[in-house]
Amino acid sequence: MTHRKLTPNRREILAGAATVATAASLAAGSASAEELNFVGQSVLITGTSSGFGKLAAQHLARHGATVIASMRNVPRPEAEELRDLASDEKLNLSVVEIDVTKPDQVAGGVAEAEQIADGALDVLINNAGIAYGGPIEIHDEQSIAKIYDVNLHGYHRMAKAVLPKMRAAKAGHIFNVSSQLGRLVLPNLGLYCSTKFAVEAMFEAMAYELAPFGVEVTIIQPGGYPTKIWENGTKNFDGLLERVGQERMAAYEAHLTIAQGMFNGSQSTDPMDIPRAIAQIMAMPAGTRPLRKPVHPNTAGPDAVNGIAKMVQAGMLGDGPYASWHKAVSD
Fold it and tell me: Which of 119, 247, 248, 268 has its CA 20 to 30 A from that of 93?
């Protein structure tokens, strides 16, 4: 395989980042809210009891999509709330039980969703996720296993379950809610960052691998938003602290104070930014949708990293046996 130059200069880096940011901005603004019409499209979403998942389920259903909203521990009030909304607004919105850490529930829930969709799903939105704070040294087997099981393995389980019928249909779209912290590193959220870095790598590779089958992949990169992940992150963090030995607690006292403050959920940003971005990308013609979309009032950091990474990937994959797959994803 021929390798292109992999050491762009600063001017090329900035130019590449600007190009990616401009293209993504134009793409996401391609349809107004009034023009969105997803009648006939089926969408399965994980983690819809709150936050981005719940808002996306409502938003896409209100624009005509057949939405299958999944969450764990059904029956629960959040499931009934969505069902009541569907009934009141005459929305095509169903609720199924899926705990993404349980393979049997993933298989059963996806089968139920495909039955509701009467065949292959058009869209999967991998959204269910959890957060832990604190310096890496204080984390134990339990916290690491839990966060990876939800944030990475859960995404893989869901994708693997929906893909056979998507591949057979030669169509489909998998969205993965990552984070700006899947490209940038923040101390005291390093474990969370590592799961999102892994999501970014896994699903970019899958984007190339799925290109011959007509299945698209988009990675959504939210910045900070006031969702329930902060409240739940506090509970996870408090549980972790109960298991940390005194020597490490004392050594990292300043870090732990900072980590506790990270879960205050005080951002003033609008969480609806995420479902709006997903809807706009869904509305784009197949083959033109972006691999990545940072979403936040400030996307300078991920724009820069995405820009240079795109250039480096082009150098690695732009020639040789992967060229056509890379072109299908990157153009």
Answer: 268
In a domain, 306, yes or no: no
| Average pLDDT of span 194-222 | 98
Q: What are phi and psi of 15, to 5 degrees?
A: -65, -40
Number of structural domains in the chain? 1
pTM of the predicted model as reported, rounded to 2 decimal places = 0.89
In this structure, is residue 321 part of a structural domain?
no
| 320 within domain boundaries | no
Report the residue count for the chain: 331
What CATH code is carried by the domain that includes residue 252? 3.40.50.720
Catalytic residue IDs: 192
Question: What's 152's DSSP letter?
Answer: I
The pLDDT tens digits of the residues spanning 64-107 come to: 999 999 999 999 999 999 999 999 999 999 999 999 999 999 99
Could you tell me the two tokens for 149? 């099981």
Going by the DSSP 8-state scheme, the letter that residue 285 receives in this structure is P
Could you tell me the maximum CA-CA distance found in the chain, to the nearest angstrom?
59
How crowded is the C-beta side of 143, counted as CA atoms within 13 Å?
A: 26
Residues in CB range of 165: below 8 A, 6 or more apart: 114, 119, 120, 121
Q: Go through 200-225 and write b for each residue having 16 or more CB atoms within 10 A of its CB, e for each that does not.
A: bebbbebbbebbeebbbbbbbbbbbb
Q: Which residue range forms the structural domain that includes residue 150?
A: 32-301
Residue 279 structure tokens: 């809807």
115 assigned to some structural domain: yes
Strand partners, 222: 295
